[in-house]
Amino acid sequence: MVNEPKFPAVCAQLAAKLEQVGESIREEDEGRLDTERIQKAIDRCKPGQAVELIEGVSMHPGFPRHPRWSAFLTGPLELRDGVTLQIDKGVTLYGSRDAKVYEVPNPDAKPGEPGKCGTSMPRPTSFPTFATGPGRPRGGCRALITINVKNAAIMGDGVIDGRGYAKILGKDYSWWEQARKAEPHDDLYYNPRMIVANRADGLVLYRITLHNSTNFHVSVNGTDGFTAWGVHLQTPVDKKYDARNTDGIDPGTSQNITVAYSWIDNGDDNIAIKQGVSHMSVIHDHFYSGHGMSIGSETVLGQSFLVVHDLTEDHTTSGVRIKSNVKRGGPVHDLIYKGICMTGVQNPIAISPYYTNQTVEPFEDPKYEGDKIPDYKGIVLQDIYDETPGDVLIAGLNEEHRTGVTLQNVVINGIKPTQVHLDFADIALQGSGTNFPLEGKSVKVTGTQPMVKRVADPCAGKFLPMQ
Description:
Distance between the termini: 26 Å
Largest sheet: 20 strands, parallel
Radius of gyration: 23 Å
Number of strands: 39
Strand content: 35-45%
């Protein structure tokens, strides 16, 4: 059982020295980085304590003290063992727009060759074959915050803003514009992630707000024990912008994970569970724009023992989404989705071995060639209700790799038979089963299909504005 985190004692307070102008800082302050003083404070802090970022105050003679400065500007930071970075309410930690400060040294670079961060290039081998090892270009961007230690945390009611909408210094495009331009040919492009944690057992994110990441917001790997509690994640904040590939929370090769009481509104998967994840709980959360509650697309090392409970999805593209293909698939099993409310969701259920690197899955096998086979078993969907119609896809790859699903009280309001896509699926019905037809030569159904529609809306009052 995971309990609500608590704020630790403070080892040092750092006062803001920059003024916020709208949702950013003044152009003339772009070179006034706070990176060094924040990093020094983190380095000096003892385990179990926090570096607190607070508002600065005006000290002009004859005037009362009042907050004036509330912005920090930083390049990459690294947390230390047991140390918390605490950002106070009203304070924003902005990421630098200077790609050079994020640059990862490239040992293959020639003298005088410019860095890769903030640039793009053709992918060595196009999707769905992925280059690894010597064939993949080295170099790129460091994360805004790196966590390679145990029991570290990021807390507070303040904001971390990556400013993905803003022009990269010296360029005529923003981080997000670069990402979108790279999409048609699946080019490699180099943007910093906001928070990257590796082997960070005991990691905690608590009450923090994450805005406008240039790429993934939270990427966690090789970690035993990660809790995100009361996280408010929104990208883009201004909906006039287009923020590609800005996943919310992405755990991989990790276990004992909890995402609770959090609000996620972003430009890609709200949560994307990568390969090698087990024993994860997603409870009491709200999702908005984004690609839904996702597993994959990498499943080679498997995902298992997931509980999703009390989730509201409001205009996500997918609801329950499991995605992979024969280039990157593996075993996925023992998953429980219970008490999920949806509205305005294009694909309420998408359990697919057909992933083609698109926002939603095709309804037929793209016939890729590969030996990494997706295999989905022991998936339970219970008390699932969608107020609006959408497509359902439940598919296995072939007769040897059938998908096993249990449906109990699953209702997609207004769904039409043409919106149901089933293939190589073993479906067990319990309770009132589901309100959509389960037909097809390769579909095996056990249990009864009463086709009972609910009278009352079980999701009344669940759909709240983003917080």
